[in-house]
From TrEMBL:
The keyword ATP-binding applies. It comes from the Archaea. Its EC number is 7.3.2.6. Keywords: ATP-binding, Molybdenum, Nucleotide-binding, Transport. Belongs to the ABC transporter superfamily. Sulfate/tungstate importer (TC 3.A.1.6) family. GO terms for molecular function: ABC-type tungstate transporter activity; ATP binding; ATP hydrolysis activity. The lineage of its organism: Archaea, Methanobacteriati, Methanobacteriota, Stenosarchaea group, Halobacteria. Residues 26-257 form the ABC transporter domain. It catalyses: tungstate(in) + ATP + H2O = tungstate(out) + ADP + phosphate + H(+). This is Molybdate/tungstate import ATP-binding protein WtpC. Gene3D superfamilies: 2.40.50.100, Nucleic acid-binding proteins, P-loop containing nucleotide triphosphate hydrolases.
């Protein structure tokens, strides 16, 4: 899936995200989960900070939902420990973990009103502070922008409104941790964008530690303080959204998060820059990677940094097709049997010269 680079600028407007010295709210210590011969989560260790919005993103089958279920207490580790606030909760049942959970399918009770659905979250815990259940429900519905809808039936609400009711219900007992399992995947694209803004605003207002699962890379970049990109049961990289997008640590991350152009090459010379033989071309890149002459490397250049009629690192490619996306056009180029992607305002045609600034290349693999 393509990701809009401008999302990074909006995401990075937040300056109050929990820093590296913030207390650890949730941690996994060498956690493995096996089902017979299948390893769903493989020796995962990570720490999530108090008040952080932390997202697990990856393709189907990568282990992200199993990781969330381990945190919720629906699954128990085959090996390793799950800790909340430093306390081992690996064997603690879900109802005693102090977590609120929001599912993909809302899981609202159709025979209950909106207010009764939210109040159900208080069946096993008293509301925080010295407030009644009714006041807590009213306060939460106001928080999720559904004030006055206590008496409506769930089927009278839109999908986005139903999901906000589910969030209010999860928040009713004032949990220490909020877990969300692909809560927007059933919504249309425009509604998802609106709801993710609301979810982030609610999280920020409450300061609650939030762990979010999604397969949508753009969603992960837009709402997270940090992102864990999952593959084959383990995180390939854990970093803030800007670093995930601009400094991917592996080829998998480079190719999974947004569009990218990955070039294989061989180092032929090193000075202030690295000179590489890339197919029939010679290219130079600026890198901090520890390289030696003769190394086989892979480096990436984002489509917005691969320029038509550039002056450096130029090569000729042929336009295959173009997709008009509104603000930009995504152009697919054929280059020596490989596909390159470029973003332009106007679609070129025929043979075009493309190139990139050496500083816009990022090494993702060295052999």
């Amino acid at each position: 899936m393509a990701s809009d680079p401008s999302i990074l600028e909006r995401t990075d407007e937040r300056t109050d995200r929990p820093g590296p010295d913030a207390p650890v709210a949730v941690s996994l210590e060498h956690v493995t989960k096996r089902y017979a011969e299948t390893t769903a989560v493989d020796d995962v260790s990570l720490s999530i900070r108090d008040g952080e919005f932390f997202t697990l993103v990856g393709p189907s089958g990568c282990g992200k939902t199993t990781t969330l279920r381990l945190l919720a207490g629906f699954e128990h580790p085959t090996e390793g420990r799950v800790r909340f606030g430093g306390v081992d909760v690996s064997a603690v049942p879900p109802e005693d973990r102090g977590v609120g959970i929001v599912f993909q399918n809302y899981a609202l009770f159709p025979h209950m009103s909106v207010g009764e659905n939210v109040a159900y979250g208080l069946e096993f815990a008293d509301p925080p502070g010295d407030v009644s259940d009714e006041q807590r429900v009213a306060d939460l519905l106001e928080l999720v922008d559904l004030a006055g809808m206590e008496d409506r039936d769930p089927d009278q609400l839109s999908g986005g409104q139903q999901q906000r009711v589910a969030i209010a219900r999860a928040l009713a007992p004032s949990p220490d941790v909020l877990l969300l399992d692909e809560p927007m995947s059933a919504l249309d694209a425009q509604l998802r964008e609106r709801l993710r803004v609301q979810v982030k605003a609610i999280q920020r207002e409450l300061g609650i530690t939030t762990i979010y699962v999604t397969h949508d890379q753009e969603e992960a970049l837009a709402i997270s303080d940090r992102v864990a990109v999952m593959s084959e049961g383990m995180p390939e990289q854990i970093a803030p959204p800007r670093a995930i997008y601009r400094q991917p640590e592996t080829q998998f991350v480079a190719e999974f998060i947004g569009d990218n152009n990955v070039f294989p090459g061989t180092v032929t010379a090193l000075d202030e820059r690295a000179t590489l033989e890339v197919g029939p071309e010679t290219m130079t890149i600026t890198t901090d990677a520890d390289l030696a002459v003769g190394d086989e490397v892979a480096f990436c250049v984002r489509p917005e940094n691969l320029q038509v009629d550039a002056e450096r690192n130029t090569t000729t490619a042929t336009v295959d097709n173009a997709e008009f996306l509104g603000q930009t056009t995504r152009v697919h180029l054929e280059w020596h049997g490989r596909e390159l992607l470029v973003r332009t305002r106007e679609p070129p045609s025929g043979d075009v010269v493309v190139g990139f600034d050496p500083a816009d290349a990022h090494v993702v693999d060295v052999r």
